[in-house]
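Final report, closing paragraph on structural work. Over the funding period we assembled a curated collection of sequence-structure pairs, and we close with a single example.
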Amino acid sequence: MKITLFGATGATGKHVVDQACAAGHQVTAVVRDASKLTRGDVTVVEADTMDPAAIEPAVAGADGVISALGSRNGRAPTTVCTDGAASILRAMAAVGTRRLVVVSASGLAKDNDGPLTRVLVKPLVQRMLRNPFADMTRMEELVRESELDWTIVRPPMLTEGPRGPYRTAVDTGVRGGMRISRANLAHALLRALPDEDTYGKVLTVAR
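Its predicted structure, as stored:
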């Protein structure tokens, strides 16, 4: 597949690049600073993700687009996910590219959670991360409102563990799923990309 990736230099994006290249996919990485990604097997496009016109050439002709964008400012107010999604959606619509997979967070919803998680853990996490979660919520709204073939992938807490078994659920939560490695998340993103059964769906992933 021809894959265009946003957030390629982030912690999750690096795993996506590694796994996509290992699987033989053609990867185009859109980055703000090309010096941060110097792999010879990746087409690196230096552009401002927030400028739809600037990223149109990068998404044109792609079989699928993955957005692993996220804020690096911890709990501070942010619009990175919202603004990035708005720009990517406009660019894809302009060039006719339809397939989009975006990373969100399972903490946004309480679907299929056990009593302790639903009543205690999730409300606490939602208060602590209210700013990035507000950004992801708005991003999800924009993606849902689009006419693209989208999938929203919601992981729980991300770790730096290895690839291994993990669980998925469509349009509901993974019961007891509190963590997932970034390597597993990357695998799930790439596996979802060609899967038409995930079009217009929320895919929750967890160990």
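Residues 2-206 form a domain with the Rossmann fold fold (CATH 3.40.50.720). Strands lie at 2-6, 26-31, 42-46, 64-67, 99-103, 149-154, 157-159, 167-170, 179-181, 201-206. We thank the funder for supporting this effort.
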